[in-house]
Amino acid sequence: QAEGGEGVPVLRTDEEVERAVIQNGVRAVLAVAPSVRAEQAPLLRSLADAGCLVWEVDADAAPHPARERLAGFACRRLDLEPPAGGGAGKRMLDILVSGTLLLLVSPLLLVCAVTLRICDGPGVVFRQERIGRNGQPFTLLKFRTHRPVDEHESATRWSVANENEMRRFCRMLRRTSLDELLQLWNVLRGDMSLVGPRPERPFFVSQFSQTYPGYAARHRMRTGITGLAQINGLRGDTSIEDRCRFDNAYIDDWSLWQDVCILLRTAAALVRPTGS
């Protein structure tokens, strides 16, 4: 609580949460966006484990059948566990498809790696920390198409690459999304899913969670190589707010069939690549 007096109590441990819930007969918790941040996910899960319904109040949310209204504001229940069937079924699809694709495209990956090494020198694989499910960091893999000035630029600059300054082969990798193929290994490892919200760097997750309502709620599910936002044109330098809405709508309405449809639409889009 606040220093020097009777301030607002602050719950810091699972035990304190459980005690407060029992003592006060708490049945529902309201989390007001944009204060719902990735680092608060453990606290919200503790409240859910204690039997509370956890709701996010979003003053700027677009109308959605799954949302209710509270004092005139949009209110969405936060599912702090994977949607029903989203655990085993989604993971099985990820393993089956990513494993098969890695076997099929391994010759192409080798050709890309060797060509990139010849054209642009050593350091073929680009590794970068991204934020995944429940705010947990992981190392994302891509073919390197650009050399940032330093680690700080790589972590904090929104666009680190000017396509006009890239070598021709690197531009081709980005425009065809071939540079993303190494993320199939992230999927097989369990860092990511085939379909889900795109993962972002910690610096931007912190910024966007404070600026855009619903952004942190995207981390309820594993991040993905592609998603509902991407097949609707929200790639690269596009509206973060719109991405939030599409990502959360995807999680709210998740089904295995929806994943299959998104994968098929992604495959069709690769025939007419527009870059990322």
Please tell me about this protein's structure:
A hairpin with a 5-residue loop joins strand 5 and strand 6. This protein folds into two domains: 14-77, no CATH class; 88-270, no CATH class. Helix 3 packs antiparallel against helix 6 (183-189). The protein is 42% helix and 14% strand. The strands form three sheets. It has a four-stranded mixed β-sheet with strand order 1-2-4-3. The protein has a two-stranded antiparallel ribbon with strand order 5-6. The chain has helices at 14-24, 41-49, 88-120, 151-156, 168-176, 183-189, 202-211, 228-231, 240-252, 256-270, and strands spanning 28-32, 53-58, 68-70, 73-77, 125-131, 137-143, 193-195, 224-226. The chain is α/β, with parallel strands linked by helices and 276 residues long. The chain is built from ten helices and eight strands. The longest helix is centred in the middle third of the chain and has 33 residues, at 88-120.
List keywords for this structure.
10 helices, 42% helix, 14% strand, 276 residues, 8 strands
